[in-house]
Amino acid sequence: MTAASGNARSTRFAASTGAVLLMLSVTGPVSADPAPQRFSATYRLTFLNLPVGEATLSVDQSGGRYGYDLKAGLRGLAGVFFDGSGTASASGERSRTGALTGTFRTESRYGGKPVQVSMSLSGGRAHGESVEPPPTPAPDRIPVAPQDKVGIVDPLTMLAIPLGAASLDPALCERRVPVFNGVARADLVLSRGKLATVEEGPYRGPALDCRVRWVPISGHRAQGTSVRRMAENDDIRVRFAPVPGGAVLLPLTIAMATGWGTAGIEATQWGPKTEPSGRASVKVHLPNAR
């Protein structure tokens, strides 16, 4: 294999892994119903069934406000090919219709260089975006229109599903989520819901399986290879599980087929952390789950 083909393969691998990181970074509380004051989850990132990284999500809620932090990074050979460490945080207030994010911030590395993005949101409208360094100008980059920043959620809330007192139902997967990350706007289209029962792992109980499509809207490069591959991918699967208290569903596992294998994310810790020698798991029972 030539150096050029090796670099191209590494770049494609990085794009696939980065996409899975993005899918992980969607979690957060969006329900006004009572929920645990503190929740944490640790995820293992894999590619071709090999461990390539880890991510940790922490959620804090106090009264009508919430805040959450995500830390993720690649390791092993993936860390050699791609500098994929990053953090993200968001805070806001809860309402009857969902979460109202006030601030969103992320720090990551791309091509060996730090990238910082921050923005404020008011009533689902993004404003005050700051991106350092700014995206590279390109003739095929789709401009972000003012309407693309209205009625959106940030990347730390985009895949959470409010449940409340309702029963777990496949129809919960039928939704389209508009997402803006401060640079680009896209829609996540969930469908094909199925109920499942998880019997092993840190969480045990009923779960909801959904298929996900990523639909780019603006801010991306129309001729970008990674954009095209993600938009054409119809094999992204997310398994949602209720947090203790059952008011909201968060991703338990994510699997994304690529041209080079399956990239995935799997929770290894769900809820209160246990001692290294502990074997505790979280069990959730929902009424009338069908």
TrEMBL record:
Residues 119-144, 270-290 are annotated as: Disordered. Residues 1-32 form the signal peptide. It comes from Methylobacterium marchantiae. This is DUF3108 domain-containing protein. InterPro entries: DUF3108. The keyword Kinase does not apply. It comes from the Bacteria. Keywords: Signal. The keyword Signal applies.
